[in-house]
Amino acid sequence: MPRIPPFLPLLLAIGALLGGCRGGEAPPPTIPAVLVQPAAGAPATGAIYTGEIRARHEVDLAFRVGGKIASRLVDAGAEIKAGQPLARLDPADLQLAAGSARAQLTGAESELATTRAERERYAGLLAKKFVSQAAFDAKDNALNSAQARLEQARAQSQVSGNQAAYGTLSSETPAIVTAVLADAGQVVSAGQPVLRIARPEEKEVAIAVPESRLAEIRAAKNIQVALWAAPATALRGELRELSPAADPATRTYAARIRLIAPPPEVRLGMTARVQLGGDAAGELLVPLGAVLDIGSGPFVRIVKDGKVVSRPVSVAAFREDGAAISSGLQAGEAVIVSGAAKLVDGQAVQTRPLTPSDRQR
């Protein structure tokens, strides 16, 4: 039996492999996958501040006289009417003071009647030469003094009556109670705040502005306000007040942004975001890496019907959050955001939407 060379099985295996490759079909070309992002409207540029919805008119209500609070009739958040009682003081001392003033008024009226009769009697005696002119003048001066004491007692009685009415705290206008600063049983002095109220007809946003942004907020022509609880609600605002002095603790300047025609769902105390800057309406925002330029002007590559298409564009501005496109691109088109320089027009690609994790990479 002849001996088989040891390399013959290896040659047969290589020949079978080459024969199989010649008889099979070529593998299909690989379709690359690209990251795309829909072209969307560019938000307005400028600084963003967080603030609170406040009323333009806020007032601390206080009793005009001191005393012990006997009752508090409203709570924080209550809607009150003009003249509605809100709190009352203990009326005992006020009523005693009013009674004392009335008693003094009665005594002054009696004293005046007595001195008037005495003067008339002395006037008759003076006509008959029974008394001297000096004695009559003394009675006349006593009558004038009694009249002055009556006017004083009448004024004091009116003041005491007013103070008795001051024992009931009320508001002159319809408002909303925003804070309770004193409660029943507490002894307060005249002028000490008891309730804080706000008139809801005019609303604004209170924000704090750093000193490096003062010129920007003064020159802002377009101020947009968005509510944290309702981000879809877009409001317009304007600068109404900017503090002339910085807060000693935060070194920021307090500013008030007046809301123009706010809807009813805007309530006091809501969190709001104030954005300054020019209007970017009509511009589309794409990632910076999506804009290419090979010497003939900027362009982007989009995916249309599964193939790559180049689009010349006009760039309005390169911003921190992307490139603002003013023309050449339509909203919603799938823009290739990475690797567009390695592709060619008409090339078939697979699309994969850009995710937040891709943005971080």
UniProtKB/TrEMBL annotation:
SUPFAM superfamilies noted in UniProt: HlyD-like secretion proteins (SSF111369)
PROSITE patterns associated with the record: PROKAR_LIPOPROTEIN
Any Pfam family: YknX_C
The Multidrug resistance protein MdtA-like alpha-helical hairpin domain, residue ranges: 100-155
Ranges where the YknX-like C-terminal permuted SH3-like domain occurs: 285-350
Coiled-coil annotated residue ranges, if any: none
Start and end residues of each CusB-like beta-barrel domain: 205-278
Family of this protein: Belongs to the membrane fusion protein (MFP) (TC 8.A.1) family.
Protein name from the UniProt record: Efflux RND transporter periplasmic adaptor subunit
